[in-house]
Amino acid sequence: MGGPVGVDFTVFKGSASGTIVPATGHRDPGPTEAIIKITHCGVCGTDEHYLHADQGLGHEGVGIITEVGSMVHALSEFRVGDRVGMGWFHKFCGHCDACLRGHQNRCANKTEYGTADQDQGCFGTAVAWDISALFKIPDEISSEHAGPLMCGGATVWHPLADFGIPVGSRVGVLGVGGLGHLAIQFAAKMGMEVVVFSGTESKRQQAMELGASEFYVTSGKKSLAGIEKIDAMLITTSVAPDMALYSPVLALGALVFPLTVSTEHIKLSPLDLILGNLRIIGSLIGPTASVRAMLRFAGKQGIKPIVETFPMTKEGVEEAMAKLREGKMRYRGVLVA
């Protein structure tokens, strides 16, 4: 038998000046890797953080397996021709304490976007990916809708599904954007009462159509008095909220999840935390079984991102990232090969 064929690929990278730069590369599949021909990739706000780095951009990829490494058949059900998705994480070790407890997202030896495999990215034609961080896409989900679920969908699913929030709870969603519009759908379909807070009136109808029970405009408000208390809050806005406005509507023992990657501080005093019995929980993407469950649930429940598509070209990447940067994307951009 011959060795691996591998793949020559083109990838769109960031650069010191922030210009999108096309680059080429080659990858042979490692023993536990698959080669995936990329067909679609979501455009996430986090890609913007790496625009000035010499690395392949894109981490919401979907594509077709074209080749597998020598151990893939023995270790998994992945086969050539499968449609798969990949996200923030590139590989889990499978043997550290976190992995053995089913918390792969806390793997001590994981590799992930931004710090590993910087020669490749899902804004490109192909990648080599470890099967530990690869996911089959259910037939019910189209490829253009699957991309944003691999990061955006998984980010909002994890708090709702894995932290013991009971069915029927009142869940606040701050912001109707790339994350928020998915959070509304997941929470509503999971049997929660979704309370949406938005800066303007303009997204009320869309939020209600997506499954919100209540909608409140926050711009210019000094108080949100009169709103029934909420049990958990997902912060999906691009800027840190004024917690003095929201603290009074949090139930005792409420969970607060800041989900947008931001360096801004969320201002709460120890007294706020003590008197409110509040828990602020840092959460990114859940473990492997959780992401699989998210994809199954989205497929069965018909949950899909609202997307705008762009060509998988230098110009397409630039246009999509500029639109996202300007806050004009409704609500997730997807690059299409």
From TrEMBL:
Cofactor needs: Zn(2+)
InterPro entries associated with the record: ADH-like_C (IPR013149), ADH-like_N (IPR013154), ADH_Zn_CS (IPR002328), CAD-like (IPR047109), D-isomer_DH_CS1 (IPR029752), ER (IPR020843), GroES-like_sf (IPR011032), NAD(P)-bd_dom_sf (IPR036291)
One Pfam family of this chain: ADH_zinc_N
GO terms of molecular function: oxidoreductase activity, acting on the CH-OH group of donors, NAD or NADP as acceptor; zinc ion binding
Domain Enoyl reductase (ER), first and last residues per copy: 14-335
Keyword field: Metal-binding, Oxidoreductase, Zinc
The keyword Acetylation is annotated on this UniProt entry: no
Keyword Zinc: yes
SMART domains for the chain: PKS_ER
Highest taxon, organism lineage: Eukaryota
Family listed: Belongs to the zinc-containing alcohol dehydrogenase family.
Listed name of the protein: NADP-dependent alcohol dehydrogenase
High-level lineage: Eukaryota, Fungi, Dikarya, Ascomycota, Pezizomycotina
